[in-house]
Structure formats: C-alpha cells, structure tokens
Amino acid sequence: MTETATRLHTLIADQCDVPAAGLTPGTFFTDLPGWSSLTALRLLGDVEETFGIRLDLRRYLAITTVGELTETVTAEAGR
Amino acid sequence: MTDLLERVRRLHAPDAAPDFRLLRELARTPDLGVVRKAGGLLAAIPDELLTRRTPRPLRIAVVPAFTCDALPRFLEVTLRAAGIRPRILVTAADQLPLQLTDPDSELARFAPDVTLCLLDETLFLSGDADLTDLDAIRDAAVERTGILAEALRARRAHHPGPILVHTVPLPRSCRDAVIAFRSRARLGRIWRELNNRLLDLPEQIDDVHTLDWEAVLVEHPGPVRDERLYRYARMAWSVAAERLYAGEAARFCRAVAGLSAKCLVLDLDNTLWGGVLGDDGPENIEVGGLYPGNAYLATQQTAATLRHQGVLLGVASKNDPGLVERVFAEHPGLALRADDFAATAVNWEPKDGNLTALIAGLNIGADAVVFADDSRFECELVGTSLPEVTVVHLDGDPSGHAGRLLAEGGFDVLTTTGTDRRRTELYRARAERTRHEAGYTDRTGSARAFLHDLDLRVTVRPADDFLRPRIRQLALRTNQFTLLGPAAEPESGRVLGVDVTDRFGDEGTTAAVWLAGDGDRLLLRNLVLSCRVFSRGIEFAILAAVTDLGRASGFTRIEAGFRPTGRNDPARRFLEEAGFVSKEEINGLIRYALPLTPTTAPCPDWITLTVRENP
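Above: the input entities. Below: the structure tokens describing the complete assembly.
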C-alpha cells in the first residue's frame, strides 16, 4: 500500500470509527457506519488539510470507493 | 497528528489514568481535524480524568442561520478547557427567527443558560438583492436588523439568560461586485451601520450581548467561507472560522458561568520589567523608553487597565522587599505603583507557598487567580502544587506578553460596575482592617471589641435600575456565601441591596437578598454576601432586616432553600447558626425554615442597621 493510501485509510478510519485495517480499495463509503453527506464533507476537510490540496467538489462527491479516493488524491497531490 | 487523539482515546479505557494537560493542549493545537475529532470523543470522558477542578455545568443553545457542522465539537473542547461541562443543543439551520419567537420551539423547551445566535449576511441581504441599488440595500438592512431585534425581545420576554449575537462580515463577492470605488465605499458604510446596530443591541435589550466578530476576523489568516461548502451545504463559515468562534464563545460562557478570573499575580524581574533588580539595580532595569523597555511597560499598562475594571493585582517575586518598595515609589517610568496592588509577597520563599498565603489573605478562590511569570520553574511549581490557579508562562519576546495575559487570563466579564474601579482600594482597606483586628487580638484577645470599634453601618434598600447591574454581578461572582451557587439569580420577587460602611471606608453594595411571599411564608430565595465582608456579622444584620420586614407584613415564618455546590458551606453554616432548621431535601435543594417571633434574629449590637423603603 502506498503512503498516501495508508494516511487516507487512517483519516477515513478516524472519521468513521472503524479499524483502518478493515478498509480496502474496494470499500464503498456508503457501507461505512454512519456515513452521510456531512461525513463526506468532514473527510474532505481532513484530506485537504493533511495533503495540502484542494479537490473539485463535483469530482469528490462522485467518488464511491476508498480506492477511487486514493487515486484522486494521489493524482492531485502529484500535480 | 494522532498523538493527541491517542491520548483522548486512552481516556476511554476503564482503568485510564487522568491526563490533566490534555484539554489545554487540545485548545491550543493548530490541527483542526484533531480538535474536531477529539471534541466528538470528549463528551463521554468523565471530568475527573481531565481536570482537578469541578466544572460548571452549562446548557448552551446554538441557534444558527446556517449549517455549522463542526462547531459543537469545537465548543466541547474550548468549554471543557475553560472549566465548563456543556450540554449543547444545535437547532436546525435557517430557523433562527422561528426558534427565538416561538414559545414552544426546540430552543424554548431546552431552556438554555446561554444562547449563541449565529448570523450570516443572508439575514440582512437577500440572495437576489440588486447590489447597484444601495438605497434599497440600506432600507432592507435597517428593516431586517429591526426584525432580529424584535425576535430577540420576544425571546427575552419568555426566557431570561444571556444571548450572544455578533457582527457580520460582508462577503468579498458582494463587496467586489460593486465596481465603482465610491459606491463600494458607500456599501461598506451601509454594512458598518448595520453592524453598529447589532453592536447597539446590548444597550437596548437586557442581557443581549454582541461579539464583534468582524473585528475578531481581522486577525484570522484564512477565508471565512469555503464557497464550495457554502453552495453545497450552506456552511457559511470555514472549519477554521468555526473554531475561532468556539474560542470566543467559550470566553463569553466563562463570564456567564461566573468563572472570570478576579486576580492577577505577577512576577517582577523579566515580567513587569526587563532585567534583575537585585543584580542590575533600580536605575538599570528596562521599562519604558525604547524596546524592550516599552514592551514591559505595555505589560504594566495592561495590568493597570485590568485593575481599573475590577481585577485585583498581586506581586509574587523573589526579591529584596526594600528594593522593590523603592522602585515602586521612586522609579519614574512605571505604570504601576504600590497602591495598585491588593497584596504582595516579595521575599525568598517558594512561590507556591507565597501564593497560597496571598490568596488566603484576599479570601478568594484559587480558581479565580491567574499567575504570570517568565520562569518555567516557577510556572511548573505553581501549576503543580496549585492546580486550580491559571498559569500564564510569559516566555519569549516581551512584546507578546500583554496580549498573552489577555488571551489566556480569562478576565472577560459581562459588565463592569462602579465597584470594579474601586475594588483594589476596598481590598487594601480590608487588609488594613485585618491588621487592626490582629492588633486587638494581640492586646485584648477580643474580636468583639474590634467589631465594636469598627463603627459598622449596614443599609438595606430596594434595588433600582442603578443597583441591579451590581447585584447581578454579585450573584455571578459569589461562590462561598450564596444559598444557590453563582449565576443563579431568582427571576421574580423583591430584590434588596445591602451597603456596608465602616470607619476604614465605604465597602459599597456587598450583599443582596431576594425575597418573595407565599401565603404566610416569607421565602428567602437567595442571599449572597461578598467574601470581602465575612466575619463581621453583616449576614445577621441582613436577617434582622428581613425578619423586621416579614413581621411587619404578617408572615409567620421564613423559608430558605440551600443548594450545596461544594463551595458554599459558609451560607449553610449561617442558616444553622441563625436558627434555621432543615426540613427536607428535594432535587438537591435543602429546605430550611425559621419561625418568626418578636425575638427572632436580633441585629448584632455592633452594627447600626438602616432599612430604607426607597432606593
């Protein structure tokens, strides 16, 4: 797992109170306990602060899995 | 990053060891994600794992005009760090006027101790407003601030308790949409007039307060709004702005809860002046003039400004007392003089012991004391042996010291009164009285002779509009001699203020009593007495006045309710000494009763008591 993926998994785990080890690239956000549009925005804030990036909200809201988020963040952080 | 969070999680374990530094560190860390997360986890952590103090419970309602997702968690952190155990209600966004005016709203049913109203520009400026028609913008702003004021009045009519509103920044997108410099300036003026109206609300509506949020934001580094989140979820403030607001709200809630610091104890060398007096000599210490002397002078001026608003100043310094006395008497550059201090401890003894004695001499709670010193050693010592004292470590560049004292000291209060300006001299007179009393005890062993010699005069009079702010302040500041605990001011009935003078001076209004009649019972709803006038029989004189009033109105007994707070035992001891008998306990309130006979509660013979019908 890349460092970006590891850090992202920690952020998601912190936000949803689930163990980071249980997350895979295929995990759907909507399957996480208590996931809502507010959780999504909280995670967005954490991700942007941690990686020092700013995501396009339309693209971010279209993301459905942990793996897709990792790809998006990796691409944005590498720009 | 997860270091702090790990410490928060550890406290969830069944056998967790306390972590008394955690709240302070959380309140300071710049990591917003950590604070937000921690705020969610803190609610389940018992107070004894986080603090050695007993926190004040406070019901806090947040009534926002927009979505403020992170604010409750930030409030949990800032309020817990400020010594408050909050219970927080956030009403639905966009319901602000409804929540305030509907007597059966969620807000009304919650019955908060504090209400925080969060406003944004949409309350005053509709989304489709024509920014080129400035007359219409102005008219709408005037009308809508009027509507808000009416809603606040309506809320006030059916619920007491302080309400905090705030000034509102005009978003840059609105300002810059007006392209002519002249028109943009006029829009700016219209918006400032709106904010001025908001700042004027405390003058018009009782117990409504205005935070100058626009001024706070001037020092805030980032944008107030993330446009994406605003458009998507109607979040008007960025997460960073919500945290900033939580800090300001905590300062307000502290003042409401009666937790404002009352005393600032300062070190001297490298705190009030630069250099070491004993080594450098009085003429070589750095104060006033050029940097860094001007920075130390600013610290002194800040302390003097606090003193003029009722904060007592003290000195705790390892120094030669004679030399210090000479500096305060003769040095031309100081902003503080010996009589600015209510108490001093200048010697070579350890500072924690000195501070304990100084606090005892002033008869105030250690949790109302702030200690400021440049030495890490002294700060650690005091912080460890007196955990209730707030310690401000003034290290680093002295030009930052004055600001740090104000930011960390917790001195904010809701209002100041005439008594505040004179508080230092009142305490100094009290110290003189104590010395005088010690002289008596030494010579004759008779405290009573001392009391007779004091020429105590007590005047009981109904509260009027001039007296009421002072009485409210007394109710808020009094922790020890109070039947109900601070901040619990009965809402109805009669309020009497008590003025005390003696041959050392006028103490001003130092006690208050709330009365109500119920059938043949006269209810003593509360009695508060400033700790400044303890041990002189004042409370018995007040009771004598109350029993006189009671008999004259045909009551057959007096009843009082006592709610133990852990601090107010002096009030219970008084009730029992005066002959009140406890009857029953209901919901933590102990009911006491005293039959009214012609001989009930005579006035002590060393006090001249006057009861006035009019203020």
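Note for the figure: The interface with chain B takes residues 10-11, 14-15, 37-38, 41-42, 45-46, 49-50, 57, 61 of chain A (CB under 8 Å).
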